[in-house]
Amino acid sequence: MFKIYDISMTVKPGMQVWENIASKQPSIVNVSNHGSGQAVYESRIDMEVHCGTHVDAPLHMLKGGETIESIGLEELVGYARVVDLTHCRDCITRADLEPLGLVRGDWVLFKTSSSFRDTFDEHFVYLKEDGARYLIELGIRGVGTDALGIERAQLELPTHRSLFRNQVIIVEGLRLKDVAPGTYFMVVAPLKLTGIEAAPARAFLIGGM
Amino acid sequence: MFKIYDISMTVKPGMQVWENIASKQPSIVNVSNHGSGQAVYESRIDMEVHCGTHVDAPLHMLKGGETIESIGLEELVGYARVVDLTHCRDCITRADLEPLGLVRGDWVLFKTSSSFRDTFDEHFVYLKEDGARYLIELGIRGVGTDALGIERAQLELPTHRSLFRNQVIIVEGLRLKDVAPGTYFMVVAPLKLTGIEAAPARAFLIGGM
Fold first, then answer.
1. Measured between alpha carbons, how far is A191 from A172 in angstroms, rounded to an integer?
2. Rounded to a whole number, what is the distance in Å from the CA of A99 to chain B's nearest CA?
3. Contact, A148 vs A17, CB < 8 A?
């Protein structure tokens, strides 16, 4: 029997958001409630599309880049490798990635120290430019991370931009604390949005499949 | 090799919404754009949680009912049967369901005339109370429909309420036009929300798995 690992962040007011910027918080508003004499309870949600677990599309950091509907479910569903990078302190470099034995066509999910905290870490472990170039050389299909971003502290955003230019998909905001390194069947299911640069997603892994 | 059928509605301004009520439309707002001298393109989305393809939780129609996080991914991922009910004109009754050979534990997705239109149909084919009672008797785990609702035209909402009271999960707003009747591996992936009555979802079927 298979086992499901939910690797998504819960989206709710007060959650961790990028750089703790208050305007990036989601809000949930009740628009109909049993208590008000209505028969139904209904809510709206207002959120950044980068809130919590999400998929980025090239437009996010490339002017004129492709939008989120260009990334089909076929690219977000299939086997993926969870790799343990919890020893990395500042960033993930080519030297950190080389021992992992990644091969062409792999989808790789980085388990870092970010999976063990629920607040935004301004020093979160990020993928350094040389690590991104290594993934591109290898022909990696996609990369996921448990930090809210795959990159910080690099002028001109070379990690994002080189990945986007080379059709490597980026997923951010995963929760991998309870997942051991290994190979799983991955589902990343973004809301079906169109014409914009990202979409919030539910993501999970299936073990034993 | 498996084949993926995306059975989700695209969420965008101008899409079909319940009873064409304007306040139920989603809105997408750009908050940062390359053209404005920013390095990044970023958007927010504001939507009803019943917009497009979504999962309902009991709180939607039962005062004090369970909220969306009570429905785990284990209940939304697994084999499901797509059944052809395109011949039904007004509603789906017990008599329409009996010939289908549904059995305890099945997940069932109704393919009706709603899959063939992209505008709200005030006369959409719905599940009549006696049909809901039949699904409950059988011990069906969940029911999905391609209409924006599983029910209309019934006082006191007995279809919703009886399904909710008996832990039958309800998914609404599927797109099944391109899916032949049969058994598929189903993924319904709602946004990971908490404390409210529903969540928008990406849903897909995998054939040949």
1. 15
2. 30
3. yes
Contacts of B97 (CB under 8 A, 6+ apart): B131, B134, B135
The pLDDT tens digits of the residues spanning B136-166 come to 999 999 999 999 999 997 888 999 999 999 9
Q: Give the ipTM of the model, two decimals please.
A: 0.96
Q: B191, A191: Cβ pair inside 8 Å?
A: yes
In three state form, how does the secondary structure of A66-85 look? CCHHHCCHHHCEEEEEEEEC
Q: In what order do the strands lie in the sheet with A42-48?
A: A27-32, A42-48, B42-48, B27-32
> In whole angstroms, what is the distance from residue A58 CA to residue A47 CA?
20
Q: Which residues of B touch A41 (CB under 8 A)?
A: 59-61, 63, 196-197
Chain A residues within an 8 Å CB radius of B64: 34
The per-residue pLDDT for range A155-203, each reduced to its tens digit, is: 889 999 999 999 999 999 999 999 999 999 999 999 999 999 999 999 9
CA distance B171 to B154: 19
Among B126, B56, B48, B39, residue whose Cα is nearest residue B89: B126
Query: Which residue segments constitute the domains of chain A, with CATH numbers given?
Result: 3-10+48-207 (3.50.30.50)
Instruction: Using alpha carbons, list the distances in angstroms from residue A101 to A76, A127, B2.
Output: 21, 17, 26
- The pTM assigned to this predicted structure is 0.96
